[in-house]
Amino acid sequence: MTLPTDTETSSTESRPRRQKSGKKTARNVLLGFAAVVVVVGLVCGLYLFNLAQTFNNGSSKIDAAFPEESTRPQKAEPVNGTAAMNILVMGSDSRGTDQVDLETNAATDQRSDTLMLVHIPADRKNVYAVSLMRDLWVNIPGKGESKINAALAYGGVPLVVQTVESLFNQRIDHVAMIDFEGFKGLTDALGGVEVDVKIPFSPNGGPMKGHYYAAGKQTFNGDEALAFVRERKSFSDGDYQRVRNQQAYLKSMLSKIIARDTLTNPVTVNNMVSAVSPFVSVDKSFDAAAIGSLAVSLKDLKVNDTVMFTLPTLGTGTSADGQSIVMADTQAISDIAAALSKDQLSTYVTAHSLQKGN
Question: pTM of the entire structure?
Fold first, then answer.
């Protein structure tokens, strides 16, 4: 029998050692990768936790946001496990008003300057925002006919909810009250927001008095954005154009928020949440977790999937007691209520060519 040479022995003995070393290297790589994943997960989890804490701690909670259950419409039935959602958004201007009492149902002197019903269909493919004119003449439960923005002064947030629920026979799932001052910080946190100004104007008062808003696309800083969404006296149709401007600003802001450059920048996201939280009040169930869950369900939403329009009216008039009012279009309200009940607001929007507003 021929004995192996030293070379053959060395080669034979080295093979198992190389295989063992290779396995060890692969194992170390996997362990290292797993460690990175765990660390990244912990960092992301901590980041999201801090964002949630920032919002929950910074925003105010409306303990009594809804009216008595017996007075309310039924909840929407889920479709494939998901139900349509209605969010009532109230915009208020804190200048010259008392703050709304968020702890009780007590009446205050504050009125909601902007009122918007946000409808999110069960399929989560669109978002519809219907602006209600603040001087819209409606029936306020228990108070009779009055301007819709008076509901806040008469009975706090619950009466505003009850008024809108009665108007459309639709249940409001969440409530958010936003002070216009929040627009300023949010705009600056985004590095400015570009808005297409349809009607040029120059405010006659306020911090931006004399500033000229030229027609065309303009990039606003916080102060400019705040004055833009507040202004109404510069327009022949007053609050109608102010609502259009607010819708234009909100749509432009949304477009920038959902842009990839924004959502992938943790500093910008943190700045946004920190800037707007102190100016937001929400019902107790609409916390960071609920908002995050809703955001995930709307992850495929594009800015063109958001439709904003103003509830059609019959123009302006005068009430029996001499107030200047916006007259309700009862047929339009009835048609929208029917579309909402079937979760088919898209059909109404298409039929009335409201995809780009009115």
Answer: 0.82
